[in-house]
Design a protein that fits this description.
about 25% strand; Endonuclease I-creI; 4-stranded antiparallel beta sheet; single chain; 10 helices
């Protein structure tokens, strides 16, 4: 039999992320006993992680922020810490590489691994600090809650707007070739032209994208899907040229 203080000490070690094996070796308490206590005692509060400080690389952070707002999420670990996951399609191996590199540049020393899903890869990294680095984290889907950048995030986006735009395009955008026909001299001719699209259900995220386009001089329009304005289009020749110079297609 063990007293309450002994049980709490063992559970506190487990709450720090220690394995049952290591806690058992240190305390001399069997793993089965510790496992049974986990279900009976009131869970101990997680210790507040230290402030991680600013991102180590602002340019990489602007890009990663775009990826996170488009196809990212943060979920709590059962014991302590959090997982950051960015979902990337298998069709774009270059995007996978850039995503991994951005995570490591933002938080040097974190581990990054891939979790293969059907048609996509969840690029995943574990840290106690992801909710502080991405304070837009919260319960529910992003388009069902308010998404606003903190002042320090906005400063980074203002300093590196193209990296932020590129991250959003790489997550929820694309570069396509549109076509149309015109009658010229009595003959119908086909014309092709490049175009960028960005689609997201969140009004706030679309506004962040559009406001940043305005700052870099890119003209855009909103295209409704039915009655919902989910799509932002960049089609004017000069604006597409700017996007090609700084963003380009996925690869």
């Amino acid at each position: 039999m063990y007293d309450v203080s002994t049980r709490k000490r063992a559970l506190a070690l487990v709450a720090q992320g220690r394995s049952l094996n290591s806690v058992s070796r240190e305390t001399g308490i069997s793993r089965s006993a510790i496992r049974s206590w986990q279900g009976r005692l009131v869970p101990l509060p997680r210790p507040a992680p230290q402030d991680p400080g600013p991102p180590a690389d602002d340019r990489a952070y602007a890009y990663l922020l775009g990826l996170y707002l488009g196809d990212g999420c943060i979920s709590a670990h059962p014991r302590t810490g959090y997982y950051l996951r960015i979902v990337c399609a298998d069709a774009w191996p270059g995007l996978l590489q850039e995503c991994r590199a951005a995570i490591v540049a933002v938080r040097p020393g974190v581990s990054v691994y891939d979790s293969q899903k059907q048609g996509c890869v969840a690029v995943t990294s574990y840290s106690q600090h992801w909710p502080r680095i991405f304070p837009q984290h919260g319960p529910g889907k992003k388009h069902n809650r308010r998404i606003v950048l903190e002042p320090w995030q906005q400063q980074i986006v203002d300093a590196h707007p193209w990296d932020f735009i590129r991250g959003l395009i790489h997550s929820d955008g694309c570069r396509i070739t549109n076509w149309t026909t015109k009658i010229v001299g009595g003959v119908r001719k086909r014309y092709e032209y490049p175009r960028y699209f960005f689609a997201n259900k969140s009004d706030d995220i679309r506004k962040l994208f559009a406001d940043t386009l305005d700052k870099v001089g890119v003209e855009w329009t909103t295209l409704a899907r039915g009655s919902d304005p989910f799509n932002i289009s960049v089609a004017r020749k000069a604006s597409v040229a700017l996007m090609d110079a700084h963003v380009g297609p996925k690869y």
